[in-house]
Design goal:
The protein is of the alpha+beta class and 160 residues long. The protein contains three helices and six strands, in the order βαββαβαββ. The structure holds tetrahydrodeoxyuridine.
Length: 160
């Protein structure tokens, strides 16, 4: 019997101005697109901006449905949008922000489990890690150098 320690690493930026300038503008795009969320049920708006290696920025926001599971998170809207429009491009950076219509979200909001699995697919597809930044409406911003920090022991194509 033995134990395995799995280390994950995040960088914490306590305030927005601490972010590199290119990330501030990517995050500002995520903040702006958050307003386009269709979230009549949860009132929880998530915005995502992706920077691709072809220089394009691809955006996403969560899209809900009266049949709840038929809705889709902002992260998957964004990465599927990127995959659909620019299938050859690599995703370099990802900015995520979330804000509730009913209270101020101060905690950094990470992608949900299903979104982590979907983002992981793109890291494998492009064979390059994605820098991921996530925040709430205000407060600290967390950065991960790769999706791998968010999904240890991920399932991928190599197991098939
Ligand atoms: N949501 C996202 O867009 N991303 C996540 O990673 C977590 C949750 C959305 C789904 C739903 O529209 C609302 O936030 C509340 O769960």
């Amino acid at each position: 019997m033995k134990e395995i320690n799995h280390t994950t690493r995040f960088t914490v930026f306590d305030t927005f101005p601490e972010l590199p300038e290119d990330i501030q503008s990517l995050m500002n795009e995520a903040i702006a697109i958050r307003k386009n969320a269709y979230a009549p049920y949860s009132k929880f708006r998530v915005g995502v901006a992706l920077l691709l290696d072809n220089g394009k920025v691809v955006l996403g926001s969560n899209q809900e449905n009266a049949a709840y599971p038929s809705g889709l998170c902002a992260e998957r809207v964004a990465v599927f949008h990127a995959g659909a429009v620019y299938p050859e491009a690599k995703i370099i950076k990802m900015a995520i922000t979330a804000a509730s219509d009913s209270n101020t979200t101060a905690a950094p909001i990470p992608p949900c489990g299903a979104c982590r699995q979907s983002i992981a697919e793109y890291e494998f597809k492009q064979d390059m890690p994605i820098e991921i930044y996530f925040m709430g409406e205000i407060g600290a911003i967390y950065k991960s150098d790769s999706l791998k920090n968010l999904l240890p022991f991920m399932f991928d194509k190599n197991f098939l």
